[in-house]
Amino acid sequence: MGHDQRFVFESVQDAASIRKYLEAVMEGLDKGRLVVATGTEEFVLEPSGLLSFTVKARRRGGEGRLSLAINWKCPDEDAPKAGETLRIKA
Fold first, then answer.
1. Residue 3 vs residue 10, higher pLDDT
2. Which residues contact 82 (CB under 8 A, 6 or more apart)?
3. Does the CA dihedral 27-30-31-35 come out positive or negative?
4. Which of 10, 36, 46, 50 has the greatest number of C-beta atoms within 10 Å?
5. What does the alpha-carbon distance between residue 43 and residue 55 come to, in Å, rounded to a whole number?
6. Per-residue DSSP letter, 18
């Protein structure tokens, strides 16, 4: 069974910079491969199949928040790969 892996990056950006990130996400979705990196840390995601897309918006006082989430099921990394054979021994 796989283990949790996480990548977190938070910063303050202007709208033009965030747009560039979102465009890169769109391109990655088209290619089926997203790479996020900072410093020496690199995280590769391979979205495929049907994706779940969630949008949440909130306004409270003078603050607004928009959250976007894209989820998908990853193939089980421990499952046999195509072309592998099963061996059972007694």
1. 10
2. none
3. positive
4. 36
5. 23
6. H
Q: Whole-angstrom Cα distance, residue 52 to residue 73? A: 9
**In angstroms, rounded to a whole number, what is the distance separating the alpha carbons of residues 72 and 48?**
7
* Domain range list for the chain: 15-71
pLDDT digits 0-9 by tens, 22-73: 999 999 999 999 999 998 888 899 999 999 999 999 999 999 999 999 999 8
Q: Would strands 41-45 and 52-60 be described as parallel, antiparallel, or unpaired?
A: unpaired
Q: Are 45 and 33 in contact (CB under 8 A)?
A: yes
Strands 34-38 and 52-60: unpaired
